[in-house]
Input
Amino acid sequence: MLTESEALARLATNSPRVPAIRALVDIARVDVLAAGRWPNPRVNWDRQSVAGVTEHYLTVSQPLPITGRRRLDVQAVSALVSASSSRVEDEVRRLRADLRLAFAELLAAQARERELTAARDRLRELSGVLAKREGEGDAAGFDRLRAEREVLDVEADLVVAATERARAQGTLAGFFAAGTDPSQILAVDRPASAPAVPALDALLEQAESTRGDLVAYRHELEAARLAARAAGRSLVPEPEIVVGTKSSTASSGGVGSALTMSGGASGPFVAVHATIPLFDRARPERALAAAQAARAEAGVASLRAVLRGQVAALRDAVLQRRAGADRYRAEAVQSAAQIERIAQVAYDAGERGILELLDAYRLGASARVRQTTLDLGVRQAEIEIEFATGWEIPL
Output
């Protein structure tokens, strides 16, 4: 037996699907390391020989990223990692919502199968009574045959319901670790009073702070602005310091070689290199940052417009489906049992025929099965509005 909260706990701890989704953030974090690494120093040895004078240069050069561009690059990439993390969390929320939908479908399938099984058992009991009465001469053979035919029809519906239940079990098992036996999954419902649906503005405010795609767009906008600042810093030359030693045979006047240093002179070597941004003035980088910022701003505006209509429609769906399910339960399901009792009494008294009695049984079973479908519709709408807004119904 498995409750919805237990199923969600198993998804978080035993399912390989959640780590597979979260691994995308770890991949994105590598870009932060790449943006923050320092350039490696370079070692250079040079030998020059002219007119009998040989000079050796042994130098070490180190670029110095001191303009702040590296720091801005790291911040921009970190903002993109935050955007990726927000989208990943949204995917995990969608996965949780899909599991809850699958759980609700399994509950509904089990309820349909249970109601049809009860209807079949009642009809079998009626067929047995009619067969006994027929043997005693108190009932016609037609009544027994008609009741047995009704049993066959319900059994056919029961086969379909069992197939749907098995399919729902398989779907739910797909959210758990490999090796989970679908046939052993039995969903257990914990009835709880449905909380009132918040107002539309409250739901939209909740969605603004919860929706991962909205938060991701904000991080991407921040990343674009940081990237534009980093591109501006690239116009400031970053120095490259070169230090080393120089040795020459010129002081002794002898003819030296690459390995003959005796009699020569040596001394320190210091230089500073810098790139002058004369032609490359980071125009592509600045244009890319501006385009990414415009895309993020447009994405936020577009999503907000879509979100308002989506949340309003989902809120109306929850309210209407709740009202419809409650009304049907109060008017149709509760009266179905009364209709069955009246039809049974009338049949036993000879006031009604077998067709009226079977119709009452069929009507009752149909009402109870339809109620499970209506309850499923309510739960589906509640789960979808929870995902769309972040508003959570206590389990």
Notes: Helices lie at 4-14, 17-36, 69-136, 141-173, 200-210, 212-233, 283-348, 354-389. Strands lie at 42-50, 53-63, 240-248, 265-273. Residues 253-261 have pLDDT under 50 and may be disordered. Residues 4-389 form a domain with the Outer membrane efflux proteins (OEP) fold (CATH 1.20.1600.10).
